[in-house]
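Example record

One chain of 552 residues, shown exactly as stored in the release files.
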Amino acid sequence: MTRLLKPLPLLLLAFAVFYLLPMGLHGLWIPDETRYAQISQEMLQSGNWVAPHFMGVRYFEKPAAGYWLIALGQAVFGENLFGVRVASALTTGLSVVLAYLIARRLWNDPRKSFACALLYMSFGLVAGQAGYSNLDPQFTFWVNLSLVALWFALDSRTPRSRLGAWAVLGVACGMGFMTKGFLAWLLPVLIAVPYILWQRRLGELLRYGPLAIVVAAILCVPWALAIHLQEPDYWRFFFWHEHIRRFSADNAQHARAWWFFLPIMVVACLPWAALLPATLIKTWKDKAQPAIVFLALWLLLPLAFFSMSRGKLPTYIMPCLLPLALLMGHALIDLIQQGKARAILINGLVNAVIGLAAMVALIYLQISNPMYGNSHAEMFSLSLAFIVLLAWILANLLQALRPLTLWAMPALGIGLLVALLPAGMPEMITDTEMPDQFVLEHLDELQQTHALISNELGSASALSWRLGRTEVAFYDTEGELRYGLKYADSVHRKVDLDSVQTWLAQARQQGSVGVLMRVRSTSEHREEGQLPPGGKRYRKGALLLIIYPQLP
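Predicted structure tokens for this chain:
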């Protein structure tokens, strides 16, 4: 089958159908998508490709390269939903290609190459992030490329191919560093050093490693010097806040328990999670093989490192998923070749039960506390949600019924889920979490306003991106702009509760004012209560838009 259908083009076609095509069919999720859309748009508009700015305010949380790729997507495809997301999709697709290529190099088995790439592409966390504008898919690709290049370097038979692989390793480390920071250098070293010491090939590392360092430096140093000259405080903030504090501080952002990533790993590899026991057993049995040792180090050492960090988010472990897919694909095809169907059958049944439980929960919630309204649009979304769940259940039941031949069916289930579920979301979620669509509905009126203000950064950045205007005032909110708003040229952008009426009165002297609010919590209701009466008011879910006319 794989020879007839040419597995790599087949995988990329499936990727295009399930992941690329639906990207323009739903609004930008807050906070990440609107943030990255606006920062990248601002680079295009300002021509400042060195120092990231978020709605005109200095934003030092990440380097610049990730924004470059998102900006490039908007430059090529337009400042639209597809243009914002295409960088994540393409880098995920390239990681799928890497999975196929390294599996072919490791085992020279077409079925294993296809299985490894398919499993990686259909891991829930990978699939969910593929159409989501974020830096994690990009960073994951550069880490994946660095470690694939490392294996090719160590496995090369000629000096030329070895030099080329080490040079590619340097490129990947350099681009990874300029995407999310020093972790891009640490992770390859974390895996390379123990593996090379185990192989007793330290001399090879000392001979060729400097090439990777030189290539990475050639890529990184020009931008590193440029941002130092433009923003001398950048490196102090970035190194201290984004690395030292996030890793070790008691008040680190997104603080979690050390075991946080263990259940996340299980969820991340759905719909293949039930194959984990068989994968671990197979890995242990083959622990003497160099390829298996390399993959195990690639999986376990970053997982241990991330678990030691106080700050944790599910996406942090995405660099661990490619080696897991390789180990799992290796184990899966061996089970099929040996005619051992039990683990695959159990995987299909577990997924079917999960889908059935989700369907029962949806029915119960809709009866007891309806999530969907009675409009035709809401009923269509509800029907679509049921169709997605039904497709998931059927796809996995097919795997359970014929595990040795229809083993790949869960990938179809996750593909349909990723493609259709956003369109099946109830309005109570989309109206609150995708404010750019609300802004789009009132774009003509907002374009006529003189000033803009918002009480939530996700909504503010949606407003800024849709209108192509950076000057949005921040009403009783700072968030990740807390540091940037301390600069003298930005402090005027802050508006507190006591001064909002004065600010509005002054702004209305010059023209109309648009106020975009997200009103859910007690504090947000208090913020709404401080606003003066009047103006044209529009509500949708938790979002409130007020257009105040110019004062006479």
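Notes: The chain has a mean pLDDT of 92.
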